[in-house]
Amino acid sequence: MGQKINPLGFRLGTTQSHHSLWFAQPKKYSEGLEEDKKIRDCIKNYVQKNIRISSGMEGIARIEIQKRIDLIQIIIYMGFPKLLIEDKPRRVEELQMNVQKELNCVNRKLNIAITRISNPYGQPNILAEFIAGQLKNRVSFRKAMKKAIELTEQANTKGIQVQIAGRIDGKEIARVEWIREGRVPLQTIDAKIDYCSYTVRTIYGVLGIKIWIFVDEE
């Protein structure tokens, strides 16, 4: 059977760049990795707690981290930054304090920037959150998938594949359902493909959502 590789790692160095940029000695590498995870979790938790839109979406597409000796630069790419920027300076400062507390970094400065994404529904993470919200509200999964595909079509992408696995609609037997629209050339390294996998906890168990979006050919 065809082995599925993570499309982002597969394309590193061609169409995909790293989300964390820093250098560490081999002995310290694991610490840096844990630090990154802490930062990302902390930001996501903060956004989740402080933002509740009607559909329960956070709207974070990705979080990029750049570390220097005395500075940690964090760029949050958001689809709907209005949610964080309503009373901007206070929110961002509070977030900065939270992250600093989490890391207890004394000799390093923290800098958080928020960047808006032009078409949020072209981002797999935001789409996955949308589908997760729908599934939690017990919308049938086919409807949710089709709606997600309609939303991406507005963001002029070339193709999308959505896959949901688990106890769909609360059935006894877990299964995998998927739907594809347009082209999704996973074998072509030059094709820029965005991917995310997302877990959603429903009443009857955990479902996994995977989304591949074919942006364009380099």
From TrEMBL:
It comes from the Eukaryota. This is Small ribosomal subunit protein uS3c. PROSITE patterns: KH_TYPE_2, RIBOSOMAL_S3. Part of the 30S ribosomal subunit. Its main location: plastid. GO terms for molecular function: rRNA binding; structural constituent of ribosome. The lineage of its organism: Eukaryota, Viridiplantae, Streptophyta, Embryophyta, Tracheophyta. The keyword Lipid biosynthesis does not apply. It is found in: Plastid, Chloroplast. Belongs to the universal ribosomal protein uS3 family. The gene is rps3. GO terms for biological process: translation. Keywords: Chloroplast, Plastid, Ribonucleoprotein, Ribosomal protein, RNA-binding, rRNA-binding.
